Amino acid sequence: xxxxxxxxxxxxxxxxxxxxxxxxxxxxxxxxxxxxxxxxxxxxxxxxxxxxxxxxxxxxxxxxxxxxxxxxxxxxxxxxxxxxxxxxxxxxxxxxxxxxxxxxxxxxxxxxxxxxxxxxxxxxxxxxxxxxxxxxxxxxxxxxxxxxxxxxxxxxxxxxxxxxxxxxxxxxxxxxxxxxxxxxxxxxxxxxxxxxxxxxxxxxxxxxxxxxxxxxxxxxxxxxxxxxxxxxxxxxxxxxxxxxxxxxxxxxxxxxxxxxxxxxxxxxxxxxxxxxxxxxxxxxxxxxxxxxxxxxxxxxxxxxxxxxxxxxxxxxxxxxxxx
Length: 323
Ligand SMILES: *[C@@H]1O[C@H](CO)[C@@H](O)[C@H](O)[C@H]1NC(C)=O
Ligand SMILES: *[C@@H]1O[C@H](CO)[C@@H](O)[C@H](O)[C@H]1NC(C)=O
Ligand SMILES: *[C@@H]1O[C@H](CO)[C@@H](O)[C@H](O)[C@H]1NC(C)=O
Known about the structure:
By secondary structure, the protein is of the alpha/beta class. The protein is about 35% helix and about 20% strand. It has helices at about 1-25, 95-105, 135-150, 165-180, 200-205, 230-235, 255-275, 300-320; strands spanning about 35-40, 45-55, 55-65, 80-85, 110-115, 160-165, 185-190, 245-250, 280-285. Bound molecules: 2-acetamido-2-deoxy-beta-D-glucopyranose (3 copies). One 2-acetamido-2-deoxy-beta-D-glucopyranose binds next to β1 and β3.
């Protein structure tokens, strides 16, 4: 009698330990150049991790959305990862609502890093007093391997996608070009794709910065000769051929100044990709009616969310669905 009671208790304790070990709630640890300052679980699926890196000034927030059954699906179940890049004036919190609403129960991990209000997803040419501003190294060489280390991901090109809006739309295509071995799918929503377009340059240079001067930090001065010109070197059109083995989606509209300014560059990149035989899904949704979901054809969340709703099944059809 005593013994069987003891064994029941022991079995119960073992079950608890096994259950604890296999439930695998993410525990974010430092590595790959990132030091974890804090890690907070905001809801069953949403995590917020603050890290520091020698590549960018200040602490950086990363929001991570895991599938609802991430912690119960077993130690061997791996998920594809979508990196979501925010626009200017925004931060790591920007994508949260749209990601939760659109991704829903799709079997996908979403990683939403801070990219600075004007970081432009590049290693800055002129960081000045804000040094270091090496956003590209932080995101592509530290964050990506750190995510694969801390979460059960499909840790290879076939398991990763990247998308972004406006400044982040540029970032998604730019990163896909420079790290084509990292991504199988890249999508831009209202992205500033053609940095050599004088109207696009004008728009970027006149984003209000802290010191009210033109924003020359990321790409330098547009008047520089081509050999040292950051706008030329970082232009998505210049490097389009590097998208050779990636699926590309470009969404843009034309019902306000910003999207109308980005539209010609969007067409230029599309035309070049078609010429290069690179798979591209292109949607100029004009005043927004054709894409629906309340989109008014402007540079706003209704349209980015509508674009995200449209692209997600296309992306999932290409991504490797776990293993
Ligand atoms: C970054 O976080 C660490 C640890 O929480 C803190 O000591 C430090 O002051 C923070 N740095 C900045 C620039 O906020
Ligand atoms: C996780 O949940 C999704 C959607 O609810 C379901 O399709 C999938 O089979 C589940 N995966 C596991 C491993 O339980
Ligand atoms: C996800 O699935 C759960 C049940 O598995 C359901 O309660 C929940 O409403 C679903 N969420 C979404 C956004 O579809």
